[in-house]
Amino acid sequence: MLRQFWIDARVRLAALFGRRHIRARAEEELQFHLAMLEQRYLKSGLAPGEARAQARRELGNPTLIT
């Protein structure tokens, strides 16, 4: 029982103090995928502004993801 308490405490503390790191990693991952989609659209012949807009539409709302 005491062992389970310490496991639970570690998990809760990690979640509490690790949120910023997890959120930053998620943002970094989203930016990577956005850049890859944008590159794909640029290679297909879209103008830079349109390629970025299309990539953002395809990726979806980042607020709902993070």
Per-chain topology:
Elements: H1 2-17, H2 19-43, H3 48-59, H4 62-65
Task: Report what the structure shows.
- The protein has about 70 residues and is mostly helical.
- The chain has one domain.
- About 85% of the residues lie in helices and about 0% in strands.
- The protein contains four helices and no strands.
- It has helices spanning about 1-15, 20-45, 50-60, 60-65.
- Helix 2 (about 20-45) crosses helix 3.
- It is rod-shaped.
- The mean pLDDT is about 85.
Features:
about 70 residues, mainly alpha, rod-shaped
Brief synopsis:
Helices cover about 85% and strands about 0% of the residues.
Number of helices: 4
Oligomer designation: single chain
Look at the helices and sheets and give the structural class: mainly alpha
Low-confidence stretches: none
Radius of gyration: 19 Å
Indicate the mean pLDDT: 87
Helical fraction: over 70%
Distance between the termini: 35 Å
- SSE pattern, N- to C-terminal: HHHH
Count of folded domains = 1
Count of strand segments: 0
Task: Estimate what percentage of residues fall within beta strands.
Answer: under 5%
